[in-house]
Write a structure and sequence with these properties.
- By secondary structure, the protein is α+β, with helices and mostly antiparallel strands.
- The chain has three domains: 451 residues, no CATH class; 104 residues, no CATH class; 79 residues, Maltose phosphorylase, domain 3 (Sandwich).
- The protein is 46% helix and 13% strand.
- The protein is built from 25 helices and 17 strands.
- The strands form five sheets. The protein has a five-stranded mixed sheet. A five-stranded antiparallel sheet has the order 10-11-16-13-14, with no helix packed on it.
- Helix 6 packs across helix 7, helix 7 packs parallel to helix 21 and helix 10 crosses helix 12.
């Protein structure tokens, strides 16, 4: 009988050493961000930074940013979730420093914590410090850097090893306090938003708890103890969902109104959501040994050869979603487990458990299970089956660490640490080389965001009444950085109307011989309240519907798109009704915006006659309208879900306020569960049982 390494054998010196190594690696790998640089590419400027600017501005004004008014006709920012409005690190970092510094600090901080948490979990998997440090390196720098353009990957992934460790402690010795701590960490993960990894995390801790008890218990107690362990971790998940209700309830409301609820695409709608997108074709799994020298060579990447291989399913994918690489040395260590002599020198329980989880996650990552799983709760809501490789990445690190520990168990301490230094110094460049070929974002010495104040387009809209303007721009969401509303939009989870062709106008002519905008196109732009058009190439045959205002190189856009000193062209629509109109049009004599806040819009109108006044913003549950301070009924069915209210003749002040019931409900549910968890944290009850001893020994 072998005695497993106990979690309480980890000393404060071990914690300090893990923190020092984790911080050192994070600073080394991401020094460009620490030195004030920035990320360019992928979703960085088309998704995350436009959200973070709204987030930071709302924080500075003492507001809770429930709505994003600049992307398209607006969308519920809190409900969309990826801004992480209530995520604690965001609440801190975006209040104390500028957006680029906060974004960079968030990345570096989470890589640091991910290493420390992965090390701590690996220690309770019977790895020594040497094996655990090596396993944490494989996990953190093998899976996350390729996904650097997806902020949610590291912000969410950091909680994966931590909650596994807490689940391990809860199963080994159940207590209300440990249950509460696990629930709070799972809830914090949910507050970070983008729930794919949170869902994978929850599934993994349930599977881990059940498998560990089942594989370590005597036959007589196996079923009862397994059900108890699974029920405990399941209860933690439910408590976490209650504690994160302030985020989950608004998101559920958006889900019901989003493209992910659409069953079939209509005549004007883009294809509906495909949960199988982002799978890993089976043959592409050979990247674990043929990574940067074959699958990730430039010509193979460009040819998308991985999609034309045996076993690939019908859905599309990409190399970022499907990336999996442990490094050549870790892979060699894992292959040593094929030798029975090596297996007998490693700990049976973690070896078998993580081998099972690795195979299960790898099979699901291929997308083969999607015809069945897409009909199951949760599975059909998220895309990216390839993201399940996060389980494979951690499993591979643990298995490699187990073999490493077995090989060096009799070495002198100094030799072990020297070997670890050599392995890390060789493996990290190996991992990063593979990741850099796949990643669609890079670190640049100076963030384009620092050039925002030098942008002539920014200055143009700042000097005019930007509340009246809406810009049609070639890069979705990017023009939000100018503080101006823009179309088209890019949303992963958005109101279904945004996936209708009516809200996705052409951003320019398809070829130089085509006049733009044609009468039908000009009418569509006018209906959407678009006042300006931005292009990166001159429109060769502009119609009378537009006129050229200016053409200069733009410091911000050229830095984001790598355009050097090429000019950008800004056009104005010659005839546009603007963002506010009445039906009939002659009933509105004049109007003026008074305030455009995070969660409200106020404007004055002078009406010649009673009429419907339309604000060309998205009508969404939670928007109430007040006329001269009094609640008024909303007029439904105007345009593509725009806001409308009946206003009497005379001068009036109209105010639209976003105060959704989903947010208020979620806030109160979170408060109740927060109190419950605090009570549990203060409860000293702890259940000890002799049967728990079987979890601490390998038979």
């Amino acid at each position: 009988m072998k005695t497993l390494a106990k979690p309480n054998q980890v000393s404060w010196l071990d914690w300090s050493l893990a923190a020092a190594i984790g911080l050192g690696l994070s600073l080394l790998v991401w020094w460009g961000l620490v030195a004030g640089g920035g990320l360019v590419g992928g979703d960085t400027f088309t998704y995350f930074l436009p959200q973070k600017l709204v987030l930071a501005e709302a924080y500075s004004n003492g507001e809770t940013p429930l709505w994003h008014s600049l992307t398209g006709l607006g969308y519920p920012l809190l409900a969309e979730s990826q801004a992480g409005v209530f995520y604690p690190p965001h609440q801190l970092l975006y209040r104390i420093t500028d957006v680029n510094s906060a974004y960079n600090a968030c990345v570096v901080l989470h890589y640091w914590l991910a290493f420390v948490f992965a090390w701590r979990f690996c220690r309770c998997q019977n790895l020594t410090n040497i094996g655990a440090f090596f396993a944490a390196t494989i996990f953190v720098y093998g899976w996350f850097p390729a996904r650097i353009s997806h902020e949610w990957s590291i912000v969410g992934g950091v909680w994966f090893p931590l909650t596994l460790w807490l689940a391990d402690r809860l199963v080994a010795q159940p207590s209300l306090r440990r249950l509460a701590v696990l629930s709070l960490c799972l809830a914090t993960h949910l507050l970070a938003g983008h729930f794919t990894l949170a869902f994978i995390n929850q599934l993994t801790i349930l599977a881990y708890a059940g498998l560990k008890v089942w594989m370590s218990e005597p036959n007589g107690n196996r079923l009862r103890r397994t059900l108890t362990a699974t029920a405990l971790t399941g209860l933690a998940v439910l408590l976490a969902m209650g504690a994160a209700a302030v985020q989950l309830v608004p998101t559920y409301e958006l889900k019901l109104a989003s493209q992910r609820e659409a069953k079939d695409a209509g005549d004007n709608q883009k294809p509906t959501f495909d949960p199988a997108y982002g799978h890993m074709p089976p043959v592409y799994a050979t990247q674990v040994f043929a990574s940067w020298w074959y699958w990730h060579s430039p010509e193979v990447l460009l040819s998308r050869k991985m999609m034309d291989t045996p076993g690939a399913i019908y859905s599309d994918s990409n190399h970022v979603e499907a990336h999996l690489y442990w490094g050549l040395i870790p892979l060699a260590l894992m292959l040593c487990l094929m030798n029975s002599g090596v297996r007998t020198r490693t700990h049976r329980l973690p070896r078998q458990l993580w081998s099972i989880l690795l195979v299960a996650a790898l099979v699901y990552a291929t997308g083969w299970m999607m015809p069945l799983s897409k009909h199951l709760p949760g599975f059909g809501f998220f895309n990216g089956p390839g993201r399940y490789t996060i389980v494979c990445s951690l499993a591979g690190g643990i298995l490699a660490g187990l073999v490493l520990d077995a090989f060096i168990s009799r070495w002198r301490t100094a030799s072990k640490w020297l070997l670890l230094a050599v392995l890390i110094s060789v493996t990290i460049p190996d991992l990063l080389m593979s990741s850099r070929y796949v990643a669609d974002a890079v670190v640049v010495p100076e963030s384009p965001l620092n050039k925002l104040d030098k942008s002539w387009i920014k200055q143009y809209f700042a000097n005019s009444n930007s509340s009246e303007h809406r810009l049609l721009a070639p890069g979705p969401n990017v023009a939000n950085l100018y503080g101006v509303s823009c179309l088209p939009v890019y949303l992963g989870l958005g109101p279904a109307v945004y996936f209708d062709d009516r809200l996705n106008p052409a951003t320019g002519p398809q070829n130089n011989d085509e006049a733009f905008p044609a009468p039908a196109e000009a009418q569509q732009l006018n209906e959407l309240g678009i006042t300006h058009i931005l292009t990166t190439e001159a429109i060769q045959q502009p119609t009378s519907a537009i006129k050229l205002l200016q053409q200069f190189p733009d410091a911000l856009l050229n830095a984001i798109w790598g355009r050097g000193s090429q000019p950008c062209f800004l056009y104005e629509l010659t005839e546009c009704s603007g963002r506010i109109l009445s039906e009939p049009a002659e009933a509105l004599s004049e109007h003026a915006f008074q305030n455009v806040g995070t969660n409200d819009v106020t404007f004055s109108v002078t009406m010649a006659d009673e009429a419907d006044v339309v604000l060309k913003e998205l009508m969404y549950p939670g928007w109430d309208v007040f006329i001269d301070g009094r609640l008024a009924p909303v007029v439904a069915g105007v345009g593509p879900s725009m806001r409308c209210v009946r206003v009497p003749s005379g001068q009036h002040v109209v105010q639209w306020r976003f105060q959704p019931t989903s947010f208020r409900t979620g806030k109160w549910v979170t408060a109740v569960f927060a109190v419950l968890l605090c009570v549990m944290l203060g409860n000293p009850w702890c259940k000890s049982s002799q049967s728990n001893a079987s979890l601490k020994a390998e038979i």
